[in-house]
Structure prediction request, 1257 residues.
Amino acid sequence: MSIAVGTPEQGTAKRKPLWLDLLTTVDHKKIGIMYLVTSFLFFGVGGVAALLIRLQLSRPNMSVLVGSFYNQILTAHGTTMQFLFIIPIAAGFGNYFIPLMIGARDMALPRMNAFAYWLYLCGGILLYMAPLFGGWAEGGWVMYFPFASSEYQPTAGVDSWILGLQLVGFSSIFGGINFIVTMINLRTPGMGWRQLPMFGWAMMATSFLQVLATPGITAATVLTLLDRTTGISLYNPAIGGDPVLYQHLFWFYSHPAVYIMVLPWFGMVSEMLPTFTRKPIFGYTALAGATMGIALVSYLVWAHHMFTSMGSPILNSVFAFTTMLVAVPTGVKIFNWLATIWKGKIVFNTAMLMCLGFLFLFTIGGITGVALAIVPFTWQMHDTYWVVAHFHNILIGGSIFIVMAGVFYWFPKMTGKFLDERMGKWLFWLWFVGFMVTYFPQYILGLLGMPRRIYTYAEGLGWEVWNAASSIGSLMLAFGFLLFIYNVIVSLRGPREAGPNPWGYGYSLEWATESPPPAYNFGVKLPTDFRSERPLYDWQKMGLWPVGEEATLRASEIHLPNPSIWPLVASVGLALFLAGMVLQGPLWVAGAAVALFAFIMWANEPAFDTPEIELEVAHHNRTRISNGMMSAYWFLGSEVALFLMIFSAYFYLLFGGRMAFPEELPNVNLALLNTLFLVSSSITVHVAHHDLSHNKRRTFLFLMAVTLAFGTIFLGITGFEWREILAHADPRENLYLSAFFTITGLHMLHVIAGLIMLGIAFVRGTRGHFTRELQNGVEVPVAYWHLVDGVWIFVLLIVYVLPIFYQGPETVRNVGDPFGVYQQNSIIGEQGENTPIPTLPESTTPAVAPSTEAAPAELEDSLPGPQEGDEIPDRSPQEGSN
Amino acid sequence: MNRPVALRSIFLAFWLACLFPGAALAASLPTPNILDAASPNAQEVSKLFWLVMGFSIFVMAIVTAFMIAGIVGGIRDRNKDEEPPQTHGNLKLEVAWTVIPLIILAILLVPTLRAIYQLDGFAAPDNAIEINVVGRQFWWEMAYVDSGVITANEVVAPVGTPLKLNLASADTMHSFWLPQLAGKTDLIPGNQRTLWFTPDREGVFYGQCAEICGDSHANMRLRLVALSPENYQTWLAAAQKPAEVPQAELAVAGSQLFIEKGCVNCHAVQGVNTYNRTGPDLSHIGSRTSIAAGMLPNTRENMIRWLRYTDTVKPGVAMPNLGLSQEEAESLSAYLETLTLPGFDMKRAFSGDKPAAEVAATLPRTNLASLEDKE
Prediction:
C-alpha cells in the first residue's frame, strides 16, 4: 500500500473501521499507542491490587486479604506491574518514537512488531485467566521453588503464570530484536552512532538485555513447569537437585530485568532535560557509555539477590564488589543530568517537574541500593520493607515519574493536543508528596524488622504508625493517577493546537514532522549532515532546516508495509496452545493448529506490494545484512543464551557433587549415529541454500527434502532412545536422567521448530517463491538449523560423552535431608497433606513407629542431629503420667 | 532574600527531614529494631549501617544542593532572553564524578568484606551451643545438639555464649530472622546453612520467617529468650525432665483426650511419647510465652480458641481442626497448662532490670475480636 504524500487525508483514503485497522495494523505509531493504552490498563489493575494490599496492612490484624488470597493478590500486583506494565510501556514509547527519532518510516520488522504486541496482550490475558485455573499463583513474582511446586500449590495457577510469562517473554525478545535491528539498519542516511538520540541508546541497551537475559527466566520457569507436570526435575532436593539453582537462573534474568525497567527512562530523561533547559545534554558520550556500562555490569550482579541463601562468603564478597560497581555509571548519569540543568533556562511544566522529582527520588533509591550491597546489612534487610521501599523508589520515583513525564512531553506529538498543565501540576505534587508518604515509612519499617510478603502483623511491634502512613500515601498516588486519566480524557476532547515542535526547543527528529505524524512519518527528504544528537538545532544554525520545496517527496517514493492479520492470529493460536497445556486438555491441539496455520499464511504473505518495492526498501539499509537475517542472528543469540543457561544448570549440579549417574548410561553409539544424520543435514541444507543463490532450484528442493528427512530420522532415533531408557529407568528418581531428558527434550523442541521452518520454506520453494535477492524465508530457517546442529554437538559432549569420563565424587553430597526431617514427616503419610489423624487405641505408645531409615553415614557424622539411637535422656514412656 | 540564605534554609529543612525519622526511630516503642542490637553481631551491622548512611547523606546533600542551585538559577534567569551556554561536557568534572564514587565505594568495601568473613556462619566459635533448627509450615523446631532438648518457636539461650544454628527446612523455603540478634539466613530444602550470634543482654527478642512459605507465612513467628547463664543452666536441666503428672480432674481428662483425639500422633510430650515430631514438641508448652508459633500469648482462653478454630486462627496450618467441643478444648487446655518446666518459672527468669511484666507487654497481641467474627 503505497501512500500519497502532501496531505495526510490522501493517505487514509482507503479508510477501514478502526477496530479492523487496529487488529491488522503494522504501523509502529499505532502499535506504540496500543502498547501504551494496554499497559496503562494493566497499571490500573495492578494499582487496585496495590491498594488492596495497603488496605490490608494499614492496621494490624486486618482481614481484607487473608493467607492464600493475599499471596495471590501479591503475585498479581508484582507480575502485572513488572511484566505487563513497566517493561511493555517502554516498548510503547520506543515503538512510537524510535523510528521517528532516527528518521525511519517504520520498524525494521513491522509484522514482528505487531506480533510482539499481540503476544504481550495474549500473555497478559492468559495471566489474568488464572482465577479460572484455580487462582493466581502464590509466592510473589519471584515464584521460588519449592513453594511453586505442585506439592505446595496444586492448582494450575502456577502453570498459567509460567505459560503466560512465556508469551510475555517472547514478546519482549521479539520487541528487543526489532529495536536493535531498526537502529542498526534504518537510521536515516548521515546519522552515525554518535548522533543517535540518548533514548535510542537507552532502548539499545534495554534490548540487548531483553534478548540475551530473558532466556534465564524461560529456563528457570520451564524447569519448574517440568517439575510440576512431569516430575522431571533439576530442583527436587530428594534426588539431589537444588532449589537454589532456580534462584540463580531466575535472577540471571531478573536482575538485568531491573535495568530493562529503568534504562528506557534514563534515556527519556536525557531527551527531556535538554528540551526544557535549552541546553544540549551534558556529556553525551559519557551518558551513552554509562548506559552500556550499566547493561554490561547488570549481567554480573544477579547473586546479590541471594546473599541470604548462597551461604558462601566468597560468592557474597564477589557479588558485593560487582554490585557496588553499578553505582559508578549510575552516579555519572545523575551528575551529568544535574550538569545539564545547571545554568539552563528551565521551563517548569509538568514534564520537567516530573524529571526533577525523578532526579531527587531516584538518587535516594540508588543510595539505598548501595546500602544493600553491604552484604551483612542485606542479611538484615533482605526480604523486608526496606527492600520494598528501595525498589519502589527506583520503579515509581524513577521509572513511573518518567513514564508520566514522557506522556506529558510527547502527548502533543502523538495527538496534536496538550495535556492540561494545571491538573498536571496537581498530579506532580500529589505523587511527589504521596510517594514520600508511602515509601519513606517503609524504609523505617524495614529497619524495625518488618518482613515483606506478610499478610498481617501483630499489634505492639511499633509498626502501626508507619503502616498507616504508608497506606494514606498510597491513596494520594491513586488519586493522582485518577486525575491523570481524567486529564487525558478531557484533553483528548480539546482543540488540536500543537505544531511540529510544540515545546519550541525539541531538537531530535520526532519534532521534524507534524503532530500527530502522518502514516509515512516524514514527507520530506531529511538533510544528511549530522553534527550532534540535536540535528534540528544544527540544521537551523546551518540553514538546512526547514528544508525547501525541492526536498518534498512524491507519493511514489514512499513505501509502507502492508497490514497483516496473521501476527494476531498466530498470537491467539499460541495463547490457546498454552491455555490448553495449562488445562492439559485437547485445546492445545487446536491452538497449535491455528498458530501453525497463521505462521504459514504469514510466511506466504508478501510484506510489501511487490518484490521490487521490498528490494527498494531493503536497499536503503545501513548494513548489507537484511533485516530478517539480522534479527535471526539476534534470535539465535537468544537461543544460545537459553542453552548456555541449561548447560550451566547441568554443570552446577554435576560439579556441585549432587548428580549420581544411573548404572546404565544412555547409549553413546546411538547418539553418534544421530550426530551423523544431523551433521549431514547441516551440509545438505547449506548446499541447498547455496544452490538457491545460484538459481539451481531443482537441487535446492531435493536437498531441502533430504534435510527434512534427516531431521525426521533424528527425531525418530531420539524417540526410540527415550523409549528404551524409560523402559527400565525413571527419570523422576535420578537427577542425571532428569537432566538428560530436560536437555535432549529442549533440543528436540528446537529440532521440531527447525523442521517446521524448513518445511514451510520447502513448500514455498515448490511454489517458486524465492529469488536470489529475496530469500529470507530460506536463509533464516537454514541459520536456525545450523544452530540446532551446533547445539547438538554440545549436547553430545556434555550429556553423553562427559559422564563416561567424569563420574563425580564417590558419594553424592546432601541428598536433601540434613537432619532426617523428611523421614519424620512421613509418619502421617504424605507430607503436606491434611490426612485425618486416626484415633489411637488405648495405649500411650504411638501407633506408628518412627522410621528407622538413617540418613547417609557421612551426613550423620557432620550433623549430629537427635535421631533414633542418639542418647536422649529421660524420654522413655515408662515414666509417663499414666 | 539573597541566595545563600535561601540555600541555607533549604539545607536546614533537608537536614531536619533526615533527622525526623531517626528521632522517631529512637523514641519508638519496643520493637524488633535492627539498630537496637542485642548481640555484637547485630551491633556490627548497625555500625555498617551508620557508616553507609553517613556517606549516603553526604552524597544526597551534594546532589540536592547541586539540583537546588540549578533550579534557583533557572528561576532567576527565566525572563532572560538569550540562549543559555551550550556546554556539551567537561572532561575534568566527569572524571571527578567517576573517580570520587569509586573511592567512596572502595572505602565501603573494606569493612563489608571484613564483616562478611566475621559474621558468616562458618566463623562460629568452637564453644558455641549448637542447635538444629528445622523450619516447617508454619513453625520452628529447635533441637539442642548436645543436650537433646527439643523445643519449638522459642530459642532459649544464655547471655554471653555464642549460639550456632544449623538451619534446614522440612518442606518449603523459610528464612530465620531475629532482627536484634543477627541477619537472616534462609532454610532451603536440600541444603544446610549456618548462623551464629552471641546474645549480650537478657530479654525476649522477636523475630519471624522472612521468606514467603505459604498461607501463614505472616504467622510463622519466633522468639529468642535470653537468660542469665545460671538461669539457662536451670532451664536446661528442667527441659530434660518431663513435666509433673497432672492432678486436677480437668487436666487428667485432658491428658486422656490428648491421646484419644490423636494429638499424640504428631506432638511429642516427654514421658508420654518421644518420636513424633511432625508437630511442635509440647513437653513444656505450659512454660512458653506464646502459642501457635508466636501468634498468641499463652493463656487458657487463647489455647481454647486455637484448639477449636485452628485454621481460622492460622490459615493453611497443618494441624487439623478436630471439631472439639468447648468442654473438650477446656480440659485439653487445662492439661497443656500443666506441662511446665519442672522447677523453673520462665516468667521469673529475668534477673536484669527488665521485669517480667514488661517483657510480657512486648508480646504482640492478635486481635481476637476479628477472629470471633468469623466463628
Q: What stands out?
A: The longest helix of chain B spans residues 40-76.
